[in-house]
Amino acid sequence: MRNQLTRFTGSFALGAAALLLGAQTVLANENKAPEPPAPTADRGLAIKARKALTVPLEGQQFIDNAVLLVKDGKIEAIGPAATTPIPLGYEVMDVGDQWLMPGMIDLHSHIAGTFDINDTVYLTNPGLRAHASVIPENPSLQRAVAGGVTTILFIPGSGSNMGGWGVLLKTGHDKYEEMQIRNPGSLKLAQAGNPESFLFGVGRSFMNWNTRNTFERGVAYAKRWEAFDQGQGPKPDRDLQFDIMNSLYKHETQVSTHTQIYQVVNATLTTVAEELKLPVYIDHGTFDGHRAAPRAMELGVSAILGPRSVDIPTAGFVRWSGSNPEKIGGVAAGYQEHGMEMIGFNTDAPVIPEEELSLQAAMGVRYGFKYDQLQTVRGLTIIPAVTAGIDGRVGSLEVGKDADVLIVTGDPADPRTSIEGVLIDGEKVYDPHENRRRW
Amino acid sequence: MRFSNTIGAAFAAVALFAATPAAKAALLSPQDEESSDESGEEGFGEDDGPETHYFAVRGADVYTGTGEVLRGATVLAKNGRIKAIGYDVEIPGLDFQADVPSKERGYTAEVLDAAGYRVYPGMVAIESSGLLGTGGDYRDSIDPFDQNMILGLSTGITSTGQSNAACKLKRYISQDPPVPYDFDGIVLRDDCYANFSWGSGSARRSVREKLVRASEYLREYRQWQIDVKNDKELKEPSKKGVDNSVLDVLQGNVLAKFRADSREDLLGIARIAQEFGFRPAIDGCREGWTVAAELGRAGAFAIVTPRERRDKSEMLVREGGSSIENAAILYAAGVQVAIKPASRGISLGGITGRDIMHLPVEVGFAIRGGLPEDAAIAAVTTVPARMMGVSHRVGTLEVGKDCDLIVTDGDLLHYQTFVQWTVIDGQVVYDKQDELYFAHIRPRAETEVAPLRRLDAGENEEAAEEGDSEADGDDDKDKQNGKDEEE
What we know:
Chain A is α/β, with parallel strands linked by helices. Chain A has helices spanning 2-12, 16-30, 139-146, 176-179, 204-229, 243-249, 262-275, 293-298, 315-321, 331-337, 357-366, 375-380, 382-387; strands spanning 45-53, 62-71, 74-80, 91-94, 99-102, 104-109, 149-154, 162-170, 180-190, 254-259, 280-284, 303-305, 310-311, 329-330, 343-345, 405-408, 419-424, 427-430. In chain A, strands 1, 2, 3, 4, 5, 16, 17 and 18 form an eight-stranded mixed β-sheet that branches. Chain A has an eight-stranded mixed β-sheet with strand order 6-7-8-9-10-11-12-15. In chain A, strands 13-14 form a two-stranded antiparallel sheet.
């Protein structure tokens, strides 16, 4: 906690202008009551709010007149004010009529560092690692924090069939070690579209063969290591290209798949989920991809949708995707109509700026996605968390999880709603009233 | 078309003159016009020629754009102009003449039952691309059947700036017997701005030179106007080298439009505007929030895109770069703010929320930055109308203005809200259920209020209001059925 305090003052020194602004605040504070003692390791934080959108995977999705206790960066307790006593000595933050919600999660982002994450050395590059490009606190990440996006999957681009390792990061910390949630966060698989422009041009039969071939060899590699670990075989030679297959084979990470159009989404499901039984999710899933939703549900595959949110019947796209030429179809609505529950949203930042993740859910609703059960909020938090297998730490306001908390003025999907505070791991990383409003 | 209308109006006026003594009084004193309307109510049909068309929306909550909200009120238009807004407005053809076949009434009337819906003035896009056809000058590109025009109407845009003109999105509606398309009717005003370039030193020098020349000429001309009374022979000062558009700017006929973002450019524009006494319209204005007071003093108009970004210069210590609070800060300093989206055209690529079809979304982001909601709606209605010099016809719902309005199924600025009907000049030109684009999304009968707000039911005022309008929603379904029968 002491470290966090230093860091917070440190950020003031970033620019003289900010310092000047800060000086004003300090002057104003001098007339008020004396500063409370600096927080110590054993002192917690209590946040009182009109409503908390807790959005656990199952059960009651919100609490009215909520109290949230934060201790050591984790959620210590959350419940109605009437039944959740605030321990003596806790710093109390009353946010009045504003709401609390978990930090938002974007499973498709390219903005955590330099943009050299599309090294199309081979057609499949499962060994490349995006984490080498990360620059903490870069301007895009700072805006992401201000937009309430606290966790991102920073992934390679889709220039080749396999771009390499993605990494799951917290957006608001100043050191890489503090940012990292899991590495590998995913293996980026890209099908059709972009990779087809690789080298001389690659068609879909080769693409599918190549993907399958790489995975088969990778699974064989992982099995050799498994055998060795169980003392049943010789020690295999380490192959950097296939390192990630060990994690995939043990279901410790997932394949995040750039896949859209029914034909291609279906191929993803067949190859990766059904035949190879590797953990995988649909990323993009757009155009008429929703036609594969029933099969995806059978195989337990989630859909993280975006950056497109509608399928518009223009002549070119009709030919390409075979979609319905008679209406403007909502992508998320399409999956929902098929009964899919695991629907999340992505930005493909910078295609859509990271801070506009919540607008992606709003656009889903505009074009027919029903949100009577807080599906928008869930699709921005718990659904991507479960999809990426990090719901033990983030994605909902539940006891024991990281205290990644947003203070919002209302419906999080509404562009008019502003974010009045962001906590990551219990640390106040954004306060528009102390620094300038960034978003 | 316009010509024949004028003749029609003249005949109508003659008929009016002959018909009632009250009408005589109206001709004598213009401010009595309203009372003549009232006394004329009984005589619907008497003063109306066969070309007279009435249009009414009734039962909706009317957001006039002037600050008033009239719940469950009626807007009545006659021949495309608003004749009355309020309660107990008698709609011709509905009550006492209900039994008279429409052919014998001497006028036509159309009524839209919109209880449970909201009526707003049609939006005025300060700028757009391709809504009237392929873009560029409307004279060359206008396509009254264009898909983009329909999508613009589906957004609730009824007027737009196109190049230097202000135009209406007048779609061609088939009629029986067919009527020719009124090309003249689309133009509200032809030359709305004088465009000034401020991008380089030489451009700035040129602007100053033109202003100096034009203001000198104006002074000489005024002096001549006085002197010529004594000396009839005195020659009128030469207009040689004087830019007519700059004269228009100095005389307040048009706005001087600049494209500028940086603090230095904005300060320069504010200074020159005050020096020569004209009001600048500044497109972009991204660092406007850092010099808002200066822009406010200069009486500036700003066209902003709240989400547009500009990085702060690393070399500068002071505030700079874009800010989500830009529109709010400018507004608070007295700058008139119009909002345009990041993309001026209609995007059909599948990415939503950034093009002209999502103008209310862009407005939403200005509110996020602190702009009050009424100022936000003004930023896409009254302010752009004022900037283009067409606010006497569009931008608000007021008696005498054009009947350009939209009927929505909720708060215009909520992301779920769809425009259900768009009306231009008292004619329904867009009906959501009649077009293939959005008819399948929340079909009209199923329209609900935003469920998220319902979570609060009974616990705060806002929720209680929502609850009420929900009840209206049910009511409105019945009304809706009635409407269908009428059609």
